[in-house]
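To make this tangible, this section ends with a sequence with its structure tokens:
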Amino acid sequence: MQKKYLMIASALSILLLAFKPAMSLHFSKSDIPILVNKIKERFGNKAHQRALDWIELVKSTNDLSPEQQIVRVNDFFNQLRFVPDEKLWGKRDYWASLAEFIGAGGGDCEDFTLAKFYTLVYLGIDPKALKLVYVNAIEYEQAHMVLAYFGDSLDRSQEPLLLDNLDKTIKKASLRPDLEPIYSFDTEEIWLTKQIGQGNRIGNATTIKPWVQVIKNTENMKMNMPILRLDEMK
């Protein structure tokens, strides 16, 4: 039990910045060619191919329904490798941007979740229909992040679908008893969560330092290099 509370305290300890206005996503179609070229320059040919595959994903899913889009996007990113931050980035906790995740070829649960979030928003899904949810993955006894999709109605009281890299099949939240919600957030607010999709507002999302940094890195097209080069490994 003590380990569980330490994990929750650690997850909440990232809420360290002062209150600021709501963030924007800073991600547009005009960014894509520059982004892809930078991925090739920074990470090499294999990463460049992943970026081209991402473009094909966007093109092929652009006219699909949101329900079809979330399946395709979830499947696409779940092909990448899971690698802990300390091993990949040499840091205890690092949230990679979409470009860094594609470039590195892998990452941890936050990276999977953020890449799915950014891609779905780029495809036209309202960011208010999505929440990034920190949970306790009970089987692993560790903090984990998933993406919750609430549908076109934007009704946060309805049961969301969960996009996850542990259980790769999209399921309703009630069908994931292995996940114990801790808190959730979007581009504007943070909720202390007893049930996925419900909770009490406890702050502004601009207090989450790694989230702010991801948005800044995306806006500035800044791509840090991991210490582990996955594409050079067999």
